[in-house]
Amino acid sequence: MTHRLIVLLLGLAAFAFGQQAPPTFENVRYGPHERNVLDLWQARSNKPTPLIVFIHGGGFVGGDKAKVRDTPMVKNALDAGVSFAAINYRFRTTAPIQDILRDCARAIQYMRYRAAEWNIDKKRIAAYGGSAGAGTSLWLAFHDDLADPKNPDPVLRESSRLSAAGANSTQFTYDVLQWEEVLGAPAEKFYSEGAEFYGLKTVEDLKSPEGKRIRADVDMRGLITSDDPPVYLSSPQPGGPPKDRGHYVHHPRHARAIKERCDQVGVKAVLYVPGDGGERPPAGDQTLLQFLLRNLGVR
Asked: How far is CA 28 from the centre of its chain?
């Protein structure tokens, strides 16, 4: 019995009992590091399918792609005829933030590289996540295309762009020097990451030409331009002055800052921040899924 047939039979059994089906392809390497791996669930279709990509949270120091298996998102996407992937990436213990974000971009490029084999529509790929996965999804949505047509690595010739992104409890930028402006308190009060976050050595390095270049590269809000895709923004945290690290890092003002910039330049963005006087999402992840499906041209 072939591996693909075993996976198919296990998947059918899982669906029959209301469980999450195992990935069609598991721990596929998209890059050289041990955490450069992804899982992919293929939707059954005679034509190329859209793709939704889950990017896990964990402050860039923890978390795993397996987290999504405890949610209904995979099955609901597959039921809608959309393939689904979940990715891992390096942590801050081994790479600076700008390289971690490019791990995630490479994962998108890798799936495009294998699109014909995996029956994926290259033009319809969305990503979402919470916390670190939220900020990363926004970075992918707003960053200029990283495709390098002449690169000797064929994966890096592919586009890194998205059709839509979903962000729950996001950060508005990974240039933490800007956080005081939006949150009313300096990053060092709640968030101890300094120059090493960017692979730099000193605080002075943050303000050097190289430091400014890196911080601009990871500034999601600063990257937003009118040609960027629609984004879904939500945060369950309360408003008011930040109370602790978790509140500071996931404060709804992060999401509001993205929404305000999107409105300024004409990028479609929906915002749900009920704890900060905003609208409440009607159905949690279902709302996010419907947003992604609609902007992938499915519904």
From this structure: 18
DSSP run (H or E) holding 111 = helix 97-113
pTM for the full model? 0.92
Total residues belonging to the chain: 299
DSSP string computed for 192-251? ---GGGGT-SSHHHHTSHHHHHHHHHT-HHHH--TTPPPEEEE--S--SS--SHHHHHT-
What is d(CA 144, CA 210) in angstroms, rounded to the nearest whole number?
Answer: 19
Domain 3-293 superfamily per CATH: Alpha/Beta hydrolase fold, catalytic domain (3.40.50.1820)
Phi, psi (rounded to 5 degrees) for 103: -60, -50
pLDDT tens figures, 146-190: 999 999 999 999 999 999 999 999 999 999 999 999 999 988 888
Query: CA 153: distance to chain centroid?
Result: 23
Cβ atoms of 103 and 31 closer than 8 Å: yes
